[in-house]
């Protein structure tokens, strides 16, 4: 199994979560309003899962040309809170004739897995 160059992200901030809420249209207050999150039993607001998936997608498109990516799917594993420092790791699990079978995971600084997924990449790059 070959490991790809990890992508280290800056710590998640409240303002980043609020900006993502505006961009996505997901204004669920558990993501943006601290008292609502605390009322739900959480220590703070939580980042949108799709924000974390976007970070995984960013890493994938630094590892491979976007035209090579055939599919990308994830499973969310754990909530992400402001202040967490995330690292996106990728692995080539299998090589086929024309395809790479890969895995991606997003971990925080405590090695807690936030997201795990798979993606397939064509070995052939398309010319622009």
TrEMBL record:
SUPFAM superfamilies: Thioesterase/thiol ester dehydrase-isomerase. It comes from the Bacteria. It holds the Pfam family MaoC_dehydratas. Residues 9-98 form the MaoC-like domain. This is Acyl dehydratase. The lineage of its organism: Bacteria, Bacillati, Bacillota, Bacilli, Bacillales.
């Amino acid at each position: 199994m070959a490991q790809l160059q990890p992508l280290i992200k800056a710590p998640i901030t409240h303002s980043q979560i609020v900006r993502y809420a505006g961009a996505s249209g997901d204004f669920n207050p558990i993501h943006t309003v601290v008292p609502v999150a605390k009322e739900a039993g959480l220590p703070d607001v939580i980042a949108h899962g799709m924000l974390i998936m976007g970070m995984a997608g960013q890493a994938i498109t630094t590892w491979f040309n976007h035209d090579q990516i055939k599919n990308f799917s994830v499973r969310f594993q754990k909530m992400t809170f402001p202040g967490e420092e995330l690292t996106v790791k990728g692995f080539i699990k299998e090589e086929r004739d024309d395809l790479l079978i890969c895995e991606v995971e997003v971990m925080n600084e405590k090695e807690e897995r936030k997201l795990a997924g798979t993606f397939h990449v064509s070995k052939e790059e398309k010319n622009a």
